[in-house]
Amino acid sequence: MRLRNKPWAVKLVNDYPESVLQNPDPEKKIDWTERFGNDHPIEIEVGSGKGHFITTLAKQNPDKNYVALELQTTAAGIILRTKLEEGLDNLQILRGDAADIDCFFDENTTDVIYLNFSDPWPKTRHEKRRLTYKSFLAKYEQVLKPDGHIEFKTDNSGLFAYSVQSMNNYGMHFDFVSVDLHHEKAEIVEKNIETEYEHKFAAKGNPIYALHASFDEK
Q1: Is the pLDDT of residue 193 over 70?
Q2: Is residue 170, in this structure, part of any structural domain at all?
């Protein structure tokens, strides 16, 4: 969902280039060790929206680095505001297209990729835009470490069914699958970090679908 343009967010993003990379050159890999100032494990959220999920993760895990990959400048600004308020030095914001994820990260450098409430692109002619389409899976496989994995959540049953089939056809392994995440065992529910959309959808009684999947070791 596109956010309404907020001029303050655009200015904030432009004022903090050390925290936000905007439309980097896809021909040049990003030196994330230099950006973060350390070589801690990296986790990526593709399409971070307002950033509640990724900023909460960063706050809970100071020994890990997080990248919010987000195309919208307004969303990037909202995430950045939280980053600055919370002092989250282990969070970087990358304003770019998910289709270029393999250009922004070297091979075998990422531990987890989060796909939370991605656009379902329900029309068949838009299948290639879905973030679980096989061309995206190939890029994730390249970026992830051999023992890395994808964590996916959605409220859209059609996208969930499609994603399960797409990942299965690609030869991925499912480590966790749920068709009603908020009614799983207590320890699973307690560990779950809700996104803004997830809270909204769950409050309406909509089931939340989730899965964790990994690739064959390279």
Answers
A1: yes
A2: yes
